[in-house]
Design a protein that fits this description.
about 525 residues; alpha/beta; Rossmann fold; six-stranded mixed beta sheet; 16 helices; 17 strands; globular
Length: about 525
């Protein structure tokens, strides 16, 4: 059993309360997902549970963690810099459990992750792996130690669809407890039997935590029904209050009028009117006390609001966006052939999704396509890489990064846009390095929008958006009037956004006619 008692976490820089007096218990068999908008403290909570020292640099925490007899395993959202420089063998050899594995166990583990058995002994650096391969390597090292509690921060990031399905089965069959963060709605819907919802309401001035021991879809349905019922009740009570107050006001005005006009020769009548006015005032005070107990309108964290592209981003249906031919796709160092005979033709505002196994070369291919399109003069292309650091300046603030002229009018417009994406005033002035993955992704998408691009090249565009923001992002991209070329393992994104889906194999791009 893992137990958290009365945990409160405050961000040191802007003194924002991330969590307040949060308590919960995680038992074997619990598969709890932490959901919430970007920047609400999901990763901070998971880090603190694993090791409070991981959050000491930027957050102050008060609370108790009880994990007696449990073996905790933690998957961070991003591979640590020190680990990126290690070879695969050095990375696995750091875990004593690696040497306790039999060849048969290593073969079975590698097979479940769709990797060759000699993967553990490779001299390739961890940093040179594809995004999905990095996640797989870290997950395999965690599982070797046979933990009882898994703490997973975005385990679904960059995993190919086959491994995502394995991850679902692993979580469903796990005998211990699992506490995880994921932006893959399909994974959440299929695996979570407990929901921990972190919210920042009233313009991120109040922290609210909801814990529900129900599957995710049931939680969403019950929450919507509760909010709708509460809203109806609140509206009904306010209408009744309005009618009552109008009636009381008429009575009070009538009594006041007669008091002002009563003759001094009728003292008894004046006394009766004063007594009646006193009763009216008493009733008024009683109603005020009752009104304090009225049903409140439900407070829900505002969804992000964002539109990508305008009429200028539209592309004529007959215009060829790209006619791409590549005889041979190699690894970036040129040492290995990944695929042959690649052909891709995109016309008009088509939205293309590329899938494939981890390590098949999708990101390498997309970089080559981006290089060609970004150099073109007849289109305006914009590129979102898988590694945001390729585009973002970690030392700059979001406002500085997005500014072109730096004038007051432009700065005001940028701050307005960032506000619609749920940035607080303080967060707009934080260095980008301090932002969450989802907040960084929002900066890149906003940069694309401001650029007036009519062709978007996106490597895993939804990977860092919460299950709450992702539907907005999918709708925004589906309605985008320009062309989209993307890599994704997000099954909802592929179904809802993409007109065509291609699988990258060693023989080139193969169309997937019926993606399920």
């Amino acid at each position: 059993m893992l137990q958290i008692k009365h945990l409160s976490i405050t961000h040191k820089k802007d003194l924002r309360l991330i969590l307040q007096d949060f308590s919960f218990v995680l038992n074997p068999g619990d598969r709890a997902v932490i959901i919430g908008e970007e920047g609400n403290g999901k990763s901070t909570l998971l880090k603190w549970i694993y090791d409070p020292e991981l959050t000491e640099d930027y957050a102050e925490a008060i609370g108790e963690r009880i994990a007696s007899g449990e073996r905790l395993a933690y998957l961070p959202q991003e591979l640590q810099k020190a680990d990126a420089e290690k070879t695969l063998y050095a990375f696995f050899a750091e875990s004593p459990a690696f040497f306790d594995q039999t060849p048969r166990e290593l073969k079975a583990l590698a097979g479940s992750f769709h990797l060759p058995q000699d993967f553990f002994y490779g001299d390739q650096s961890m940093g040179s792996l594809s995004g999905g391969e990095k996640v797989k390597a870290q997950m395999m090292r965690l599982l070797m130690a046979r933990p009882t509690v898994l703490l997973l921060d975005e385990p679904s990031n960059d995993l190919d669809i086959g491994t995502l399905e394995w991850l679902e089965e692993m979580i469903l069959g796990w005998q211990g407890a699992v506490l995880y963060i994921s932006h893959d709605e399909t994974l959440i819907e299929r695996t979570a039997n407990m929901v921990i919802h972190l919210e920042q309401i009233r313009r991120k001035t109040v922290s609210r935590i909801t814990t529900a021991h129900v599957p995710y879809l049931q939680y969403k349905k019950e929450r919507e029904e509760k909010f709708e019922k509460q809203a109806r009740q609140a509206v009904s009570e306010r209408k009744e209050k309005e009618i009552r107050d109008e009636k009381l006001q008429r009575i009070e005005q009538s009594v006041a009028y007669h008091l002002n006009t009563v003759s001094r020769q009728a003292p008894s009548k004046g006394r009766l009117l004063k007594k009646k006015m006193k009763a009216v005032k008493s009733m008024e005070h009683r109603f005020e006390r009752q009104d304090a107990e009225m049903t409140r309108m439900p407070e829900e964290e505002d969804a992000i609001f964002f539109k990508l592209g305008d009429r200028d981003a539209a592309i004529p249906a007959g215009k060829t966006v790209i006619e791409y031919q590549l005889p041979c796709l190699r690894t970036p160092d040129g040492a290995r052939i990944l695929a042959k005979d690649i052909s891709l033709h995109i016309r008009g505002s088509e939205k293309i999704g590329i899938i494939g196994d981890n390590g098949s070369g999708k990101t390498t291919l997309l970089r080559l396509i981006a290089k060609e399109l970004l150099s073109r003069q007849d289109i305006r292309a914009a590129y979102m890489p898988q590694n945001y650091q390729e585009q973002l300046n970690p030392e700059a603030t979001p406002v500085d990064y997005l500014s072109r002229t730096g004038d007051k009018e432009e700065t005001t417009r940028i701050r307005t846009f960032l506000g619609s994406l749920k940035y607080t005033f303080d967060e707009m002035d934080h260095p980008i390095a301090e932002l969450s993955g989802g907040q960084k992704a929002k900066v890149l998408l906003l940069k694309m929008s401001l650029s007036g691009a009519n062709v978007l090249i996106l490597d895993e565009p939804t990977r860092n958006f919460s299950a709450l923001s992702a539907p907005v992002i999918r709708r925004m991209l589906a309605e985008y009037p320009g062309a989209v070329i993307s890599i994704s393992h997000d099954r909802k994104y592929l179904r809802e956004v993409c007109d065509k889906i291609y699988r990258l194999t060693e023989h080139g791009l193969a169309c997937v006619p019926d993606f399920a």
